[in-house]
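Need a sequence for this fold. Nothing fancy.
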C-alpha cells in the first residue's frame, strides 16, 4: 500500500524562482506521494518576465495543452492541488477524463467562466480580496464547495497561515487512506 498520490501544479510563474512550494512539500511529503508539476513546462510556455505574456500563452493554448497532457499521461492521482492557472489546468484535465479523484484549486480565477461543475470532488479557495474570482451566485449555481480566506488576495496560497491550514486539512482528509493505484 502506498500513500495517496497528489500532483501539485504551479501558478503561471512555475516553481523555478518561487520558494512557497518548499513549505507545501515539507508539510505534505510524509503523508503523500507528491508530484510537482511546473505549469509552464506542462503547457509548453515560452519563458517571459511579463505576467501579461505568460497569461496570454496559457489562455491561447497552454491550459488546453497541459490538461490534455495530464489526460494522455494516464497517471492516476488521488488529488490535484493547483495554484491559480494550475487549478484551471486540473479542472480542464478532469473535464477531459484524466484519472483524478479530487481537485483542490486555490485562486483559480478562470474557473468563473465555467458553466458546469465537475463530477469529481472539488473544493475551491479564494482570498476575500481576489479581484477576478467567481461570485457567490456562481458557487451556488454550480454547488461547489469553497472557502473564502479573509483579508487575503490572489496569492493567498503563499500566505503562511493559509499553507498551514490547507495542509492540515488535506492531511486530515487523507489520513489513513491508501492510494487506489
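Here you go.
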Amino acid at each position: 500500500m502506498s500513500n495517496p498520490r497528489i500532483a501539485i501544479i504551479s501558478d503561471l510563474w512555475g516553481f523555478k524562482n518561487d520558494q512557497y512550494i518548499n513549505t507545501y512539500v515539507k508539510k505534505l511529503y510524509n503523508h503523500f506521494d507528491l508530484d510537482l508539476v511546473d505549469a509552464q513546462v506542462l503547457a509548453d510556455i515560452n519563458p517571459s518576465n511579463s505576467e501579461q505574456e505568460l497569461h496570454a500563452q496559457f489562455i491561447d493554448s497552454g491550459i488546453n495543452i497541459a490538461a490534455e497532457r495530464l489526460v494522455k499521461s494516464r497517471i492516476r492521482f488521488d488529488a490535484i492541488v493547483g495554484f491559480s492557472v494550475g487549478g484551471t489546468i486540473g479542472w480542464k484535465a478532469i473535464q477531459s477524463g484524466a484519472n483524478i479523484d479530487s481537485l483542490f484549486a486555490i485562486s483559480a480565477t478562470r474557473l468563473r467562466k465555467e458553466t458546469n461543475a465537475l463530477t469529481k470532488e472539488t473544493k475551491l479557495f479564494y482570498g476575500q480580496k481576489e479581484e477576478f474570482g467567481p461570485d457567490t451566485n456562481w458557487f451556488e449555481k454550480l454547488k461547489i464547495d469553497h472557502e473564502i480566506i479573509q483579508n487575503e488576495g490572489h496569492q493567498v496560497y503563499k500566505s503562511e497561515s493559509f499553507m498551514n491550514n490547507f495542509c492540515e486539512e488535506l492531511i486530515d482528509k487523507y489520513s489513513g487512506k491508501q492510494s487506489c493505484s
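For context: Residues 5-174 form a domain with the Rossmann fold fold (CATH 3.40.50.1820).
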